Amino acid sequence: MAAIDLIILLLVLASVAFLVLPYLKFFFFQLLPIIHRFVLDLILDEPLPYVIGFVLALVGLILAVLIDIRLRKCGNPHCKGLRRAIEYDIQLETEKCVKYSAPPPDAYGDNNGLTPLELGQDREELEAELKKMAPPNGRTVLIFRAPCGCPAGRLEVWGPKKIRRIKK
């Protein structure tokens, strides 16, 4: 199937080249020298406004890029400033993972100026769905993210407790 697609692609590219090539030839050999002479005469008469315009356009472009990068970031010093970050992450942690993992960082708490997680009436329903996903003696962690990708809130739901039986 892929070989047929490749052959069709090559045929389409060849037909487009066959149709476009005469126009490109006309542009480069007949129109471009006329335009080149006209622009060259225009710039050589008064070069200063064109140089100033080019420099201002370049500076404006650089400033626009820098401002765009700065506006995407939040106050977090480790913020990556992503454009279209995912809105939430769901992490399933098993019993072994919970047992050996470090305590969660304070990046999700109120210490960083983050508002507490308010879900309203949907909280119980969300917790019930997360509890269904959680492994036995493990937990499901739902991390809500800001538009830049930084964590904005965290919801932990523990899974069903599996009682260990002591063998005698």
From TrEMBL:
Listed name of the protein: Ribosomal protein L34e superfamily protein
Residue spans crossing the bilayer: 7-28, 48-67
Species of origin: Sesamum latifolium
Keywords: Membrane, Transmembrane, Transmembrane helix
